[in-house]
Structures are given as structure tokens and as C-alpha cells.
Design a protein that fits this description.
alpha/beta; 8 helices; 7 strands; binds 1,4-dihydronicotinamide adenine dinucleotide
Length: 246
Amino acid sequence: MTILITGGGSGIGAATARRLSQWSAVVVADRNKAAADEVAREIIADGRKAFAVEVDVSSSASVKAMLEHLPAEARQIQGLFNNAGINVRQRIDEITEDGWDAVIATHVKGVLLVSQAVLPQMLARGRGVVVNTASDYAVIGVPGLAAYCAAKTAIYSMTKAMAVEFTAKGVRVNAVGPGPIDTPLLRAGRSPEEGAARLDLHRPKIPMKRLGRPEEVAAVVDFLMSDRSSYIAGQLLQPNGGLVVW
Ligand code: NAI
């Protein structure tokens, strides 16, 4: 069994690669090759199987090259975690075209391109699992994050569309929708002081009064990837400390 993890070089992707490597070979794919190498090295040092590969998920040429660069044994992919992501903090009235395009291309086009690259072999086998990283922000509005919210809602929607298309063909598709998780992405674009002040403001609103850990999202992805979730398809599972409850 091999599971491909995009954005595997950091945060949620890295924690998930470490966890899934306990029962599967993992491909750690990231645009930051040094970070992917480091995660793969760590997993291999623990006696498990990992491959690091560079990819820009927003580029079809790069996604194609990623698969070509993998050794043959790592190209048989039974599980896909579409997780690579970025954030651009700009309100809808101020967001630049470049900022919008980068967020939508990384998240929405990224899920499309990597899924397109991997799904054919899953469908040919009549078996496979896909987990897409959405967010709480797929279902709530957040000030200053228009592109990110749009991208995450699109990923949630794509997850449902993919589930409707592929469940009967043996490929289960679900989404994980994390709340605030302590990773570099949460602090991106802010000084350490600004980041800390912002989080202090938000922490009291979280019923568990703390940020989540990447490992707590990895545990959910592990469940969705495994046969323990064999009757779950097209769902958004939200590890968020109780922050968003309907
Ligand atoms: P992170 O910044 O720690 O990791 C993201 C990884 O994605 C990085 O290693 C980065 O190099 C990689 N990446 C970015 N663009 C890429 C591209 N075009 N091609 C390949 N790799 C690319 O962030 P984190 O928090 O681990 O984020 C992972 C996913 O979780 C993202 O989709 C993010 O939107 C989502 N998420 C994060 C939350 C949080 O609070 N940290 C909350 C909800 C969702």
C-alpha cells in the first residue's frame, strides 16, 4: 500500500505522513523538496517506507513529472491525501488578482490535477481512498479570507461531487475540515508578535480553549484512509475543538 500526501513537508501533511507510515508506504510530496526530504528521512530512520518528491500541485506539468520521478514501486498509489495549501489574507475589496489566482490554483486546481493524475489507477483497480483537506472555513464566512474561504468551499463541493462519481466504482472520497491548527500556515504573513496576539484573541472562542495539533488532524485522516471508515463517503469531518458546531 502506498499513500501520496501533498504538502507533506510541513504541518498537517508531515504529521499525517508520519502517522500513516505506521501501516503504509508514504510519498511525501511538496513544492519545498528539502522539507519533504527531511520528513521522508525521519520516517525511513524509524524503519518505515517513505519517498520524497518535489511537486507544485498547481501545475499539470509538475504533477506529471512528480509521478515520473517516483520509483515504480511508489507509483502504485492506493491512497491520496490532497492537502497542500497556502493562505493570502486580503479582504474581497482589496485582494489582488495574483493573490486570488495563487490561492485558487493551489487549493482547487491542485486537488483537481493530483486527483486526475492518481484516480485512473484507483478506478482501474476498483479500489482507492481520497481525503481532501478543506477547513471549517468551507462552511463559515471569515473576514479577510475571501479567496481561502472560496477555495475551501470548492474543495468541500468537489469532495461531494467526487464521492457521487466514484463511490460505486470502489473509490471512497471524503474531506477533513480542520479548525485552527498550530502550523506555520496559521502564522504566515504575520510577525511572531502579531501571530501570537491574534491567536490570543481567538483562543477563548474555541470551546477547548486551545489550538489543535497537526497530529490531531492526522488521526482523523488516518481514520478516513483506513477501512475503519469503510461506510463513510462524501463527508466533511471537522477536528476543530468544537469551534464550529451546527
Ligand atoms: P503548512 O504551511 O504547515 O503546510 C503546507 C505545505 O504545503 C507546505 O509544506 C508547503 O510547502 C506546501 N505547499 C504549498 N503550496 C504548494 C504547492 N503549490 N505544491 C505543493 N506543495 C505546496 O500548513 P498546514 O496548516 O499544515 O496546511 C495543510 C492544509 O491544511 C492546507 O490545505 C491548509 O489550508 C489546511 N488547513 C490548515 C488549518 C490550520 O489552522 N493550520 C486549518 C484548516 C485547514
